[in-house]
Structures are given as C-alpha cells and as structure tokens.
Write a structure and sequence with these properties.
single chain, 420 residues, eight-stranded mixed β-sheet, 43% helix, 17% strand
C-alpha cells in the first residue's frame, strides 16, 4: 500500500512503475469507476480478477500484470481484499494507494494488518528538487557524502534551497516552476492544491470534526510564528482542551497533511520513554504550501533580498527540517523543560543514540539551550543545521541547511555508528 497526501504523485508513480516493470497495468480508481461491493463478497480472488479485467479492458495474469487499486479508502471491502490477495497462492501483484482521507473512519473496515507492506510517499525532498531543477550531476554530488567538498558549493546550493523554499515539494508545483519559471503560476498551483484539500475536508470529515479540523488547519502559520512553536489550543478557541481536538488532529495526521512532533521530558534513550503526546508542535506537510498559506509576499525575500530564512522568525527553517527529518525515515520529537526557556528544536533517535538537533536560520550559531544540554550530558552528540559551512567542533556537527536531506539519509542508511 502506497500512502500519502493528495497531490504527492502516488497515481503517476504507480502507473510509471507498472509501465516500466510489467507487461501491462490494470488500473481502477475507486473515486470514479469503482467495482461494485458484490464483486468482493466472499473475497473470491478469481471472481475479483475477472471483474478487474472486465472493467479495465486488460488481461490480468499473475506476476505479469500490475493491479492498482487507487483511492482504496473509498471502498472498505477493496481494502480488506488485500488480506486475501496476500494469502492467495495465485501470485497476483496488487498495490493499493490512498490519500488516507477517510481511511480508518469507515466503521467495520477490516484493515489488512500484517498482510501488506506500507510505504509512505512525501512531497519531493530538497535533493529531488535539485535533480529536477539543477540536474543529475548536482544531485549525485549532493548525495556523495563528501561533506567538506559539498560545503564548498554553499552559495550554489543555498540559492537552490531558496527556490525550494518557495516551491516546496508538491510535484505539480515543482513541474510548473521548472518548466516555466513563472512564479505567479507556481503560486496559483499551490493555491489550487490548498483549495482541493479544503474541498476534501467537507467531503470526508464527519460533521462533528469539520469545524475543529478547519480551525487547526487555518491556524498553522500563526502557531509556527510563535517563539516556542508549541501548539496552543487556547489561541484558536478560548478554554480548549486537548481531548476536544484530539480527533481533529488525528484526522489531519491520517490524511498526511500535518507532522505532529511530540515533546520529550528528557533527552534520553529511548525517546519514546519520555514522550508527552499532549504537548506538541504541528507542521504542515509541505514548505511551499506553508508559504502559500501565509499569504505574504515571499518573492522579494527569496528572489530579491535572499533573506528568506532570516525573516519570519525561523518558522520556515524549522518547517524545512521537520519535513526533511520525517521523509528521511526518522520520527522527530522536541525537548523543552517545564517552566524554563531551555528547549531543543528537535530530537531524533538513531540506533541507541538520542541526537539533539538545533536549527539556525542564519550565520549565528550560538545556541544557549544546546550548550547547556550538552554540558549536562557530555556523552551526547548533536547536529546543528544552519547557513554556516560544514564543520565538526567537539560534540556538535554543523551541517549546512541545504545538506540536511543528504546528511539525515546517510545516517538512516549507515550500517555503523554515525560520525557526528
């Protein structure tokens, strides 16, 4: 199963995969031309296959045909059928995809737990943007792990990062920008995506959650503009409690529209031991869409003055790192000490290490909180993402913001302890 928010490219990716790897593809979209529920009665695989072949006009053969059930959340029986495909010895290759809008909200749905491999699709990362805009040579160099050499091209890659801050990683937005370099058409594409999400809200969300989801969604830019960035429910509705809004937050998470970053009460391994799920930050899933949601003129900041990260109170720098951490395969947390200004922007867990992460939007790398935590925990190794060049100093590694994607992915794929 391929999960992800709408407009992240799931359908294109699956069709492209089918075209390249199989003799033919049988594609069904349950939003537009669904199979009748009766087809799935008894979950008779040959019966389902005959219906798929008839509806798509494609011969369906084991191993040679790629079967795609798109927007599968619209049919709970089709979702349940994945269990029977997995248990069948007939060898049919099936991939379901869904935006998660509605998944888990259908009463009685038999989700095929343990029977499918789930893959999450995120907006394009910065490295993928470099591939689309800067070409394969730059992309390969950025992935090479030659950190000192890559850092020498700080100006070139930082310029691309400024552009990525405007476009974000939604494939249609990047395509519009790369092909036409029309900033206003690019922004209109982002607005269209946001409008589509808002229409999905009214279509999929239960009436008792709709207003709460809309309140949370519309408040994201103002919440991230706060100095501590902790999500404060009382700022959107006076007297609100987490219990009142937890269903709405869960819905946005399941729709892959937000990243929820929970607070840890201690910088220690394992981080889950110290997680406080009722205190959190919320980030929208894409940097470019956040910029569009703010409805401010980012064009001058990015393309004229080049001061994007220095403005807007570091909100976009933290947003960039939050989505980069998540798409790299790590679960982000953050640390803040109660009744104190001591805080760390993020924490990640790698093997048996808890790694503090500090995000700096400019060239100033002074970090009082990080310094304090490292003095109290001398065995910790930390990462600081900033506009400065690559540098190792004592137990802190400074990584340029544009190298964040490459650096985090190198940690995730490393078979040895990282040299941090």
């Amino acid at each position: 199963m391929l999960n992800g928010a709408r407009q992240t490219g799931k359908t294109w990716l699956l069709k492209e995969f089918g075209q390249n790897e199989y003799e033919n593809t049988a594609y069904i979209n349950f939003d537009f031309s669904p199979l009748p529920d009766e087809v799935f009665s008894g979950f008779d695989i040959p019966k389902i296959i005959r219906a798929v072949s008839s509806l798509t006009g494609q011969p369906v053969s084991p191993s040679r045909t790629f079967i795609i059930f798109d927007e599968v959340q619209e049919n709970p029986l089709a979702l349940t059928s994945l269990k029977y495909f997995a248990e069948s010895e007939l060898g049919y290759n099936v991939c379901a995809s869904g935006s998660l809008l509605g998944i888990g909200l259908h009463a009685g749905t038999g989700f095929p737990v343990g029977k499918v491999e789930e893959i999450n699709l995120y907006p394009m990362s910065f490295n993928e943007f470099v591939l689309a805009k800067g070409g394969k040579a730059k992309f390969d160099f950025l992935k090479s792990s030659n950190w000192d050499e890559i850092s020498l091209l700080n100006a070139s890659f930082s310029s691309l990062l400024q552009e990525y801050c405007f476009t974000g990683g939604m494939p249609e937005v990047v395509k519009t920008y790369v092909e036409g370099r029309d900033l206003y058409r690019t922004r209109e594409t982002q607005r269209s995506i946001l409008l589509g999400y808002e229409k999905d809200f009214s279509k999929h969300i239960p009436a008792n959650l709709l207003s709460k989801v809309e309140l949370i969604w519309s408040s994201l830019p103002s919440q991230l503009a706060k100095e501590n960035k902790k999500f404060i429910l009382s700022s959107i509705k006076k007297g609100s409690r987490i219990k009142e809004f937890e269903g709405a937050i869960k819905w946005l998470e399941e729709a892959s529209l937000v990243y929820k970053v929970d607070r840890c009460s201690k910088v220690g391994y394992p981080l889950k031991f110290y997680e406080e799920q009722n205190i959190f930050k919320l980030f929208p899933m894409d940097l470019g869409l956040l910029g569009c949601m703010t409805d401010i003129d980012l064009l001058t900041s990015i393309f004229v003055k080049g001061t994007f990260f220095e403005e807007f109170n570091r909100a976009f720098a933290e947003q960039f790192i939050a989505q980069t951490i998540t798409s790299s395969g790590f679960k982000p947390f953050y640390y803040a000490k109660s009744n104190s200004r001591l805080k760390l922007d993020f924490l990640i867990q790698y093997k048996d290490l808890a790694i503090p992460i500090e995000v700096k939007s400019g060239n100033n790398t002074k970090a009082k909180s990080l310094t304090t935590v490292l003095k109290e925990n001398p065995d910790l190794k930390a990462i600081r993402f900033s506009q400065m060049g690559f540098k190792r100093q004592d137990n802190i590694t400074n990584v340029p913001l544009f190298m964040a994607d490459s650096w985090l992915r190198s940690l995730k794929t490393s078979n040895t302890q990282p040299e941090i």
